[in-house]
Amino acid sequence: MKSWLKMLIILFSVPLIAILSFASYYLINNLQGIIEPYQIGNPGADQKILIASQGSDFKESLLYELTEEIQDKERFLSIVDCTQLDREDLSKWDACVIIHTTQIHGMPKAAESFLINSDTHSNVILVTTSGGGDEEIRNFDVDGISSVSRMSVIPDLVDSITFKLDCILNIPKAE
Asked: Which residues have a Cβ under 8 Å from the Cβ of 37 and sit 6 or more positions away?
């Protein structure tokens, strides 16, 4: 093979390998897992709250702390993965919390479809996590919280979500 052809192949191969290595590293470290759906409480309870999340150590810890804080005999909590959210009907829930990470400056497609197909978003709280904690979802008129994914912020985050949930659940529903 001619030497100029070898140089050309090397010239294009090195950056391609570097890009693929970086992309693989990013995906391995930032890919969100799937959580198993579960319910807490009586389905006939006065208040029904849907919580959608993604699977990561941070989000699973946040989810655990949040459900521990808000569960009581007057509330029914249904926890689903964000990938299943487009199968839900927001009108059947008194409140909804969506905990997701931004990837490529967007939210999970099923969560986005869920919001697009919902008539109102007044009972939705978006909890958006990102590397710097400064990403926001701007396409929807919802109450939102942006956060970095650090375990140390979970107590404050639970307080903020709980406060917003209490505001939503204490507002009389329009018939």
From this structure: 78, 79, 80, 81, 84
Residue of 52, 27, 40, 35 lying closest to 127 (CA atoms): 52
106 & 166 share domain: yes
Is the domain of 86 the same as that of 165?
Answer: yes
Asked, for residue 175, whether it belongs to a domain, the answer is no
For residue range 37-87, list pLDDT tens digits in order.
999 999 999 999 999 999 899 999 999 999 999 988 789 999 999 999 989
Q: What is the pLDDT of residues 142-162, one digit of tens each?
A: 777 888 889 999 999 999 999
Is there a single domain that holds both residue 115 and residue 142?
yes
Task: Give the Å distances, CA to CA, from 167 to 135, 148, 173.
Answer: 24, 24, 12
